[in-house]
Amino acid sequence: MVATHRSRRTPCFPGRCLAWLVLSALATFLVGCIRYPTRAANRNPHVRSVVASPDTLGPGDSTTVTVTATDPDGDALVYDWGADGYVLIAGSYDSHLLYNTFSSSHVFYRSPGSPVGDSALVAGTARDLRGGSDTRIAIIRLRN
Known about the structure:
Blueprint lengths: L13 H20 L12 E8 L2 E2 L4 E9 L7 E6 L3 E3 L7 E5 L3 E6 L8 E9 L5 E10 L2
Parallel strand pairs: 2-9
Antiparallel strand pairs: 1-3, 3-7, 4-6, 4-8, 5-7, 8-9
């Protein structure tokens, strides 16, 4: 009597089924041995500097703040900006925070009523969209 496989209704001879089983096990083993490329752990970007030019503001003046940053993994960077109440970020609805800009430079204006002789702080953050970030601060002097 010849055994039949239920789903195909074809004869299944003991030697043929054993060969199929051995080949299936071998294929499964070989697929498990293949090394798939893995992505290296993400490293944080490095902000070298945050520089305001000019670094002193009078009433109604503006300055351009530039972040110099690199990513050791070569990832593209986006920039976030934060300002204290003494300067305002151009183009920001909030005027103190701006996120996800693709430019490493941004314009800031002196806030009306900011005290003379004090300093304003601007934070520039570089992010790599893989969870890494680094932040530095620029100090801007306020004058008459």
